[in-house]
Model the fold of this input.
Amino acid sequence: MTETSLSAGPSGAPRARSTLHDIEIGRLLLEGRAFFALIVIVAVFSALSPYYFSLGNFLTMASHVAIYGILAIGMLLVILNGGIDLSVGSTLGLSGVIAGFLMQGVTIGGVILYPPVWVVAVLTCLLGGLVGLVNGVLVARFKVPAFVATLGVMYVARGVALLITNGLTYNNLGGRAALGNTGFNWLGFNHLFGVPIGVMVLAVVALVGNLALARTAFGRWLYASGGNERAAELAGVPVRRVQVSVYVLSGICAAAAGLILSSQLTSAGPTAGLSYELTAIAAVVVGGAALTGGRGTIRGTLLGAFVIGFLSDGLVIIGISSYWQTVFTGAVIVLAVLLNKVQYTRRPKRPAAA
Amino acid sequence: MTADPDIVLSAHDIVKTYGATHALKGVNFEIRRGKVTTLFGENGAGKSTLMKILSGVTVPTSGDIVLDGEKVVFSSTVDARDRGVSIIHQELSLAPNMSVRDNIFLGRELRGATGVDDAEEARQTAGLMRELEEDIDPLTLVEELRLGQQQIVEIARALSVNARILIMDEPTSALSASEVEVLFKVIRDLTSRGVSIVYISHHLEEALQITDYAVVLRDGAITATAEARDIDLQWIVQNMVGDHYDRGSPPTGYAFGDVALSVRDVCVEDKAKGALLVDHLSLDVRAGEIVCIYGLMGAGRTELLEAIAGRVPLASGAVRLHGSDLAGLSIAARIARGLVLVPEDRQRDGLVQTMSVGENLSLASISSFVRGMLTSRPRERALVESAIRNVHIKTAGGGAPIGSLSGGNQQKVVIGKMLATGPTAILLDEPSRGIDIGAKSEVFRLLGEKAAQGLAVVYSTSEVQECLSVAHRIVVMRKGRISATFGPDVSKEEIMAASGEAVTC
Done:
């Protein structure tokens, strides 16, 4: 599967070698379901609205998807490990607030320091990693169930964000040329070769993630420990280290998404990213990953994020009420899980090799 | 069908196949009213398959079950239970967080006017406990009971549905001697009331004490049936073990090397109970030598091997590989130094089901084909292909799903995975468990081959015949200690006697 990584459709764990000996239509449809769903969504909305099928609209929608997509890639790593990270929405909000806080200048010993934007970005990502480290240590070292540990951290991170701003929003993120801290808007508004920077970031994260999963020892360890932790441990895989790493990476992804979102909005509010963790989980699931761990790909997750993003933006464009959007998104998720079940229960029943 | 009114249940020509494996090959079996019938047989002989069929867990591929002269088909365990056949599994199926009363009526709670009739349930439970002469309060939580008492609760549950036939799978394996006495008293009591017991145990002499009839299974067929008063231990062992098929012989023609693996005074503690699972055990294995560890369930074999491999911590003692102490090293570090473990339960501990055959084979040696940051595909492919050849795995290729392989080939994947790391000492915990005879002899032949190339091999088994295959030395473990050491020319009876199998507890 890895060798055909640009062809349609998410699959389970990537295989060392491509064994496409049984290409059947049904199987192709099943494995490529997120891809086909995306085509159907684009086709249907293009027919319903003249505004949907245009480059400008696709780029706008893609920059919305970027936020969810980056979160979802971090979430995928955690889910591949057999865990879940409910704290990413809060971490996203907290990261935006921290970035906003740093942009206002930090008073140290009576002197107000205005860190340049790149320092703000690095510090924010470090903070995201730190939140992830807390999750990872709770789960790997203290054996707190991932659901509970990250639920707790979700509340704490949101609370800290509210405390820092006292519930208010930082609106002044532009910086001042005199202070040398301008450029925060670059992430959210600029384009590189006509593509929004946020989408570029998503593409880079996805490419690096894909390479890491398919071709590094870490990727193999992650698939193995998510598929069977005991077997991985006995094969010498450092399962604890892998477990901590995925939460740290997920936290960093959430911080990056937080930076992009606050840059897009030119404001950093403590309630940003509310319930985004659920959207990220939905993207991972729609992308064909198994919540039990060990199965899933970056490609699938990206498709999942685009399916959910293009669907909800399409519903907005054709003027369907936001209540219906919620219903549609929910239905898509349930359908995706049902199809996952079909796909993964079918597999072992294939005829035994001679 | 049968004229004999004493026969409550009989099985005729039962055949059960799993894929290509014949677990049962036309078994005829009778259970008599108010008698204890014991099934003897080694692991894999088909005992548990037969019990699963009689208790409705699975249905036979062909053959009939006749209950009270009437042909029946059990659709489920509940169906079998409703017709009076109950089974008590080796692993008790009680909810430890609930009371004795709630466990006994689990799934068929008595309904009163206002929900569950707790008082009536408690009254009936107390009545059952009186019958069994066990002083257990119905409201005690099951987790607070000793294992023997939990067993009594299981029996009470079976009796509460008026079981006429009670199947007990290894009921004494976790019991102390006094608890066994209580259990036997209960069994005698039950039989005097007309309840028929089917009893399965590895403790032969113990089983011989309680049983009225003995039935011996071997390789899916019944080899002998007799009344207990006509037979002795010798008879059972002979029929259990049967004639030899070739399990290989110890490789010869070379001298052993230096001591590869040295275990000194090792103790492993059961934290929950504070007991020693491995008790000051010492063992040396030389390069090229094959050592077999034989012991009953609970003798401490698995714990010993897992402790050597670094899976569980040592309470005391030391493990040395080629003279260097392994204390504090992780599993990964031990693998890197050349010490590997093939775990007992390959589904749970050996294989990653979500990965392909190739990915499973290369899992323990990823670092050997990483170049820079990335894995090298050609190198991985070469490693996988040589591993497939090395341990003779029958597969469509490295990309095939692991689930497409037979049990024996899956086991070879686990062994091949560890051999691919280039070990100097290999530990195998029950390598022959759950694989067919052909695959077994292949696995043992493979061990012989590798030992001849200088690998130190330690394998454990609970089948006495497998001690007498490729092992140069047979070590018998009993209650965490080495109770005897033999050369390859020992008899099965001697091994079994040393393990405690043929001795009263």
In short: Chain B touches chain A through 50 residues (CB under 8 Å). Residues 265 and 280 of chain B are 4 Å apart (CA to CA). Chain B has three domains: 7-241, 245-338+425-505, 346-422.
